[in-house]
Amino acid sequence: MALDETYLADLETPPATEPLDFDALFTPLSPTERQVFQLYFIDDLTPQEIAAKLKMKRLAVYKHLSRGRLKLKQEVKQHDLN
């Protein structure tokens, strides 16, 4: 039994219509949190690399990531309820 090509084409995920606007997405974050998020999530640096680049301790990087995630979660919750 051969697979129908039109069926397979329907299963493909459509491409994103617009790229994400990370500046708008990261608006609730402090400037330092924004910078850490950019380096971690966009530039794909490790916490150790971020710490060296920003001249801070690795634990401070984790703190900024944790607090930033919490702020973004709260922002999502706030917008979902209203």
Tell me what the structure shows:
With 82 residues, the chain is mainly α. It has a domain at 26-81: Orthogonal Bundle (Arc Repressor Mutant, subunit A), CATH 1.10.10.10. It contains 5 helices and no strands. The mean pLDDT is 82.
In a nutshell, what does this entry contain?
The chain is an all-alpha fold.
Helix content: 55-70%
Sketch the major β-sheet. Answer: none
Distance between the termini: 51 Å
Q: Tell me how many strands there are.
A: 0
Q: Compute the gyration radius: what is it?
A: 19 Å
Keywords:
RNA polymerase sigma factor, 82 residues, 0% strand, Arc Repressor Mutant, subunit A, RNA_pol_sigma70_r4_t2, 5 helices, mainly alpha, globular, WH-like_DNA-bd_sf
